[in-house]
Amino acid sequence: MQKILxxxxxxxxxxxxxxxxxxxxxxxxxxxxxxxxxxGLALLKSFIGINYDIVGLTIDPRxxxxxxxxxxxxxxxxxxxxxxxxxxxxxxxxxxxxxxEPNPCSLCSRMRRGAIHNAAAELGCNKIALGHNYxxxxxxxxxxxxxxxxIGCFSPASYMEDKNIHIIRPLVxxxxxAIKKAVMKNxxxxxxxxxxxxxxxxxxxxxxxIAEMERKNHGFKNRIFGAMQRADIxxxxxx
Length: 239
Known about the structure:
Layout: H1 2-14, E1 23-27, H2 32-44, E2 53-60, H3 71-79, E3 83-88, H4 91-98, H5 105-122, E4 127-129, H6 134-148, E5 157-160, E6 165-168, H7 176-186, H8 202-216, H9 220-230
Parallel strand pairs: 1-2, 1-4, 2-3, 4-6
Antiparallel strand pairs: 5-6
Helix pairs in contact: 1-2, 2-7, 6-8
C-alpha cells in the first residue's frame, strides 16, 4: 500500500481534496478501486496532518432482483475502524427489466449517483469519495472524444450545489496496475460484480483500445494526461 498512499497523498495535496473537519462518505462498490481507496483513506488519517472522518457506503443495485452479499466488505470496514452502511435499491431491475436499456451503464451510473448523493447527505457527510483511478481518467477522456465528440472528463474535485456536497477522487493519480498489485498483495476481499453487462461495455472497448495504443506507442496514456493538465481541462491542471 505504500505506493498507493503516495499517489493518494499527492492527489489530495495537489487538488486540495480534503480539509480539516471533513466527514467523507466513501463509495464502496466492493471492487478493487473502492476497497483500496477506503484502506488508503483510513491509513492516511494517522499521518497526513488533516483531521477528517470517513463513512463507508455501498449502493446495492440488486442485480437479478437479489441482494448483493457485502458481508466481506462489512468485515473489511470493521478492520479499517470505519462505520459502514448499505442502501438497497431497485436500480438493477429498472435498468435491465423495466427499461431494458441496450446501453445500460449511463442510466445505472446516474441512478447510483443520485442514490449515493442522497445517502451521503442523510449521513451528515460534506464530501463523497469515488474510486476512479488514473486509467479511468484517460478512458473517460477518450470516450468523450470519440463517442460524444467533445473534449472533457470528470474532475478530481467538484461541487454539487443542490446537495451542498463535494465529490472527490483521491485515487486519480494511482495507475490501475498499482491498485491490482495492492489488492493481490494484501488479499483484499473484492466482490465480483453481478451486472449482466460487466466486461461488455463501451468502457471495456476503450480500455482495450488504450492498451493496444500503449503497446504500440509507450507513454500514450501519460501524454494524454499531460495534455489534460497543461490545458487545465475540467480542473486537471496542477494548482
